[in-house]
TrEMBL record:
This is Homoaconitase, mitochondrial. Catalyzes the reversible hydration of cis-homoaconitate to (2R,3S)-homoisocitrate, a step in the alpha-aminoadipate pathway for lysine biosynthesis. Pfam families: Aconitase, Aconitase_C. GO terms for cellular component: mitochondrion. GO terms for molecular function: 4 iron, 4 sulfur cluster binding; homoaconitate hydratase activity; metal ion binding. It catalyses: (2R,3S)-homoisocitrate = cis-homoaconitate + H2O. Keywords: Amino-acid biosynthesis, Iron, Iron-sulfur, Lyase, Lysine biosynthesis, Metal-binding, Mitochondrion, Transit peptide. Residues 484-603 form the Aconitase A/isopropylmalate dehydratase small subunit swivel domain. GO terms for biological process: lysine biosynthetic process via aminoadipic acid. PROSITE patterns: ACONITASE_1, ACONITASE_2.
């Protein structure tokens, strides 16, 4: 949000982007005539909600809310895909419990070995163009590759959807990512997203929704789009949506020939409806950022080691002669048929290098059957590849083939975080299926050209740009309080105010907010939680703050683990609101789910940092500035002193009545229980 005096600045509100239009379709309980915009809190009723191996913890939470039957069994999908190699009695019992629960409830269920949940959601048409589909897994962004709005949720949200059919979402800022030009030969979709993660590696799209555009976007295959959308998660985004175009329509027409008809979700009628009722962003839609990448400037890229934000051209990395121990063609990112065929084309007629283990797993059993029929699967096996069941496996450090101490691996997966695929003392790189297969043959990180003794194609300088447009505002005065107004429910405050306490740091993590040593102690009293709140960040926090204060902090506040106590510990100090430049997404969801309100106001933290740039460093500082959030007008005003001069004033997202009701009930679980009793 740009800092502006809204009492004097007037301009026309922009049209809707594609993300806002999809949310408009799936939002429930909106006031008549309400047009949703980025920043608004809305209740959503997603088309589908997928959970995988975590389905049983969600089921236990669902049952703990007092429910016996799910609201809509056609909305829910259960898949088993993460720990499918684990044949222990404990894991098999969990899988059995999930299957039985699904059978009792009439939920669509896909057993271990059928494939990775995200692939199933696309193959079976649950995620479908222009629908909103969520999953209790961070890679639900994948659905954006087929023009759906896919976004992750946490387990409490999933239990809420099972019980009531809905949950809440704050519409994020939306970034337009323009892919200009054409991909050179030998450059894949994986190279595009690896290049994006490396070229824009300063949180430019953190917690944004992304919409991809481009003059030759129709030339990007759907599999390339799925790979790019999948890894927008690693880039820091909440979603990554490609448009509905002729390429996508033709892909679905081909699906009609593959899927048994009549199919409940992908059939002639649903495809025709898509053609007849397709939507796109308005010409005057607003985007918080406009990033461009010239595809013609790309060459094959490799991510790592141990970070998706380190991106190196293959031409440069190949010169380092990095010997590898393991190679992987697995995961929801790059294990579709085209990926397997591309790897097989590279490796055909060659053998995996001595001392190298090359693991392969199809994204689904259907993909494996198609690869077997094509001959690509057998070509990989003949070269010495080691097959694994369709599922996640080594991508998340489960099952066979994990990296050992001192080893180097190259993988077509989505994450190479330190220790994720095995030992924390191993090095993991990410690349396209072609580069993974070539490296497996060469015994070092390299490209297909090197197998025949040729040189790697030279790297180009990546051509990119970023623009942050001025944000349009409503044509009604903020200061007058005479906007259309937000309805405020009885029991919810019309305004929230308090003194700002500055915690001047970026990336304050959940362990800094609530120490890990207390996380798994279920009997910590509220008083103790209040006492230890923020102590790992600043031992003086408790002495410097009081009830009613408002914490203001930097960017990516609440990054780290999913512990809900990071939110409830702040509430235990009787603080109802946290303001930050940006929040870790899981913290944001846990906050609202536990009735802690949050606001993203980058201008405020930037202004405070300017104010104190020459002052002695304090981790926690009382500012003397007072913030008032007028819920009715969706306006924040900051004054120097309780009645002092206005320092900052701007619009924020509207807090709809559905979300107010969740806060009044003490959080999402309280709201869900209340629905049971109505």
């Amino acid at each position: 949000m740009s800092r502006r005096n809204f009492s004097t600045t007037v301009c026309k509100l922009a049209g809707q982007n594609l993300t806002e239009k999809i949310v408009q379709r799936y939002a429930v309980g909106l006031p008549k005539g309400k047009i949703v915009k980025s920043g608004d809190y809305v209740s959503i009723k997603p088309a589908h909600c997928m959970s995988h191996d975590n389905s049983w913890p969600v089921a236990l939470k669902f049952k703990g809310l007092g429910y016996k039957n799910v609201k809509d069994n056609r909305q829910i999908v259960n898949t088993l895909d993460h720990d499918v190699q684990n044949k222990s009695e404990k894991n098999l019992e969990k899988y059995h419990n999930i299957e039985n629960f699904a059978k009792e409830q009439g939920i669509d269920f896909y057993p271990a070995g059928r494939g990775i949940g995200h692939q199933i959601m696309i193959e079976e048409g649950y995620a479908f163009p222009l629908n909103l589909t969520v999953a209790s897994d961070s890679h639900s962004n994948t659905y954006g590759g087929i023009g759906a709005l896919g976004t992750p949720i946490v387990r409490t949200d999933a239990a809420s959807i099972w019980a009531t059919g809905q949950t809440w979402w704050q519409i994020p800022p939306v970034a337009k990512v323009e892919l200009k030009g054409r991909l050179p030969k030998g450059v894949s979709g994986k190279d595009v997203i690896v290049a994006l993660c490396g070229a824009f590696n300063n949180d430019e799209v953190l917690n944004h929704a992304i919409e991809f555009t481009g003059d030759h976007l129709d030339e990007l295959s759907i599999d390339y789009r799925l790979t790019i959308a999948n890894m927008t998660t690693e880039w820091g985004a909440l979603s990554g949506v490609f448009p509905v175009d002729e390429t996508l329509i033709n892909w679905y027409k081909e699906r009609l020939q593959v899927l048994p008809q009549p199919h409940p979700r992908v059939n002639e009628q649903t495809v025709q409806n898509l053609i007849d009722n397709s939507v796109s962003a308005d010409s005057d839609a607003y985007y918080a950022k406009h990033l461009t990448l010239d595809l013609s400037s790309l060459s094959p890229y490799v991510s790592g080691p141990n970070s998706v934000k380190i991106s190196t051209s293959l031409a440069d990395l190949s010169k380092q002669n990095l010997k590898i121990n393991k190679a992987y063609l697995v995961s929801c990112t790059n294990s579709r048929l085209s990926d397997i065929k591309a790897a097989a084309e590279v490796i055909k007629g060659h053998k995996v290098a001595p001392g190298v283990e090359f693991y392969i797993a199809a994204a689904s059993s259907n993909v494996q059957k198609d690869a077997e029929h094509d001959g690509a699967w057998n070509a990989l096996l003949e070269a010495g590849a080691i097959p694994l069941p369709a599922g996640c496996g080594p991508c998340i450090g489960l099952g066979a083939g994990l990296l050992k101490e001192g080893e180097i691996g190259i993988s077509a997966t989505n994450r190479n975080f330190k220790g994720r695929m095995g030992s924390k003392d191993a090095l993991a790189y990410l690349a396209s299926p072609e580069l993974v297969a070539a490296s497996a043959v060469l015994g070092k990180i390299g490209g297909p050209e090197e197998i025949g003794g040729g040189p790697v194609h030279g790297a180009h300088g990546i051509v990119k740009s970023i623009d942050i447009p001025e944000k349009p505002v409503s044509d009604e005065s903020v200061s007058s309080g005479e906007t259309a107004g937000v309805e405020v429910l009885e029991g919810f405050p019309r305004s929230i105010e308090g003194e700002l306490v500055l915690c001047d740091a970026d990336n304050i993590n959940t362990d800094g907010i609530y120490p890990g040593k207390y996380t798994y102690q279920d009997d910590v009293p509220r008083e103790k939680m209040a006492q230890v709140c923020m102590e790992n960040y600043d031992s003086e926090f408790g002495a410097k703050t009081k009830a009613g204060d408002i914490i203001v902090s930097g960017y990516n506040f609440g990054t780290g683990s999913s512990r809900e106590q990071a939110a409830t510990a702040i509430l235990a100090r009787d603080m109802k609101l946290v303001v930050a430049g940006s929040f870790g997404n899981i913290f944001s969801r846990n906050s609202i789910n536990n009735a802690l309100l949050t606001l993203e106001i980058p201008d405020l933290i930037n202004t405070l940092r300017e104010k104190y740039k020459d002052a002695p460093k304090e981790l926690t500082r009382r500012t003397g500035w007072f913030l008032k959030w007028d819920v009715t007008s969706a306006t924040v005003t900051v004054r120097d002193g309780p009645e002092g001069d206005i320092v900052l004033q701007q619009k924020v997202g509207e807090l709809g009545t559905n979300l107010q009701e969740i806060i009044i009930k003490g959080g999402l679980e309280g709201w869900v229980r209340a629905q049971l009793n109505e």
